[in-house]
Amino acid sequence: MKILKKVPLSALRVFEAAGRTCSFVEAAKELDLSSSAVSHAIRKLEVAAEVSLFTRSTRHTALTTEGAMLLDHVQRGFEEMSRGLAIATNEPAVPLRLHVAPTFASQWLVPRLAGFLRDHPGIDLRISASTDYALFDNDDFDLDIVYGEPRVSSHEKTPLRIEELTPLCSPEVAQHLRSPQDLYSQFLIQSDGQSVQWKGWFAANGMPPPNSYGLAFDRSSMGIAAAAGGLGVVLESDLVAEQELASGRLVSPLRHVSNSVRYVGHYLVHPRRHRQPHAVTQFKQWLFKELAVP
Q: Which residues, other chains included, contact 102 with Cβ-Cβ below 8 Å and sequence gap of 6+?
């Protein structure tokens, strides 16, 4: 408490921004201060705490072990203060903003959100779905669930789960599928944005691809809906088609007589330092717990 009395709240705010971005210049831009003002505030905090919080060089700024530890506590403190002010003033809390691949959002995430909202009533979620990437610095997103290998960046990326791609269809269509060769007589539904398409599946099974396909969509969710409606056979992931497989609207008749394609389809991407560490941690724990459920 003695040290805290020596340090103004503004200095901790400057430290949080500098620690999260690992850049005095970026912190200055964010807080509308000069770089020298940021440096002065950090130095004042270090003198008061009698500890070095950053290692500095002409090209690189990084948190020390003590700095990283302090940043974690400061971020949680600001998050709690923000939540308390929102409650006291009847204003909505700062939402946790998610950017999600469209098919993952509609097929997997939304059907499970009731459980998250029930168990975490203090977290206000805002979700946006598109095939673009979250920029984080310019769009205020906290987390991004992307389809396919993420673009190169300094952000942390975590693979969600190994997915299995196998032909899926309605139970009625499945009656006509006894072997992989039977696919040649069926309408094959193509998802144009998919990393692995029918050509890759046929190659994995040592078979030539057909000359044409019955249907093609630019969203996997539409392909799944078409297959569930009996329009043909879709090559799709057991993850994004989980609801339809569980309900029996889709089945995988060739799974045990052919080679499935296994790959990492989705990744979780986020900055290494969070603006809302408590909310981000809670969501990540819930996400991976749900992904682990068979």
A: 129, 130, 131, 219, 221
Same domain, residue pair 149 and 171: no
Within its chain, how far is the Cα of 266 from the centroid?
8
Q: Could you tell me if 270 and 140 lie in one domain?
A: yes
Does the pLDDT value for residue 2 go beyond 70? no
Domain of residue 136 covers 96-160+266-292
Instruction: Quote the longest CA-to-CA distance of the chain.
Output: 79
Q: What tokens does 143 get? A: 């987390």
Q: Tokens 């609207």 sit at which residue?
A: 249
Structure tokens at 96: 């946790």
| Coil/strand/helix, residue 208 | coil
Contact 79, 279 (CB under 8 A): yes
Reported in sequence order, the residue ranges of 34-120 that DSSP labels E, i.e. its strands, are 54-56, 61-63, 96-100
75 and 51 in a common domain: yes
Residue of 265, 234, 254 whose CA lies nearest to 108 = 265
Q: Which residues is 294 bridged to in the sheet? A: none
Q: Residue 258: which residues within 8 A CB-CB, separation 6 or more? A: 166, 167, 180, 205
Q: Average pLDDT of 183-209?
A: 93
Distance CA 22, CA 154 (A): 11
242: pLDDT strictly greater than 90: yes
- Amino acid, single-letter form, for residue 173: V
Q: Do residues 106 and 248 share a domain?
A: no
Quote the pTM value. 0.71
Whether 224 contacts 234, CB under 8 Å? yes
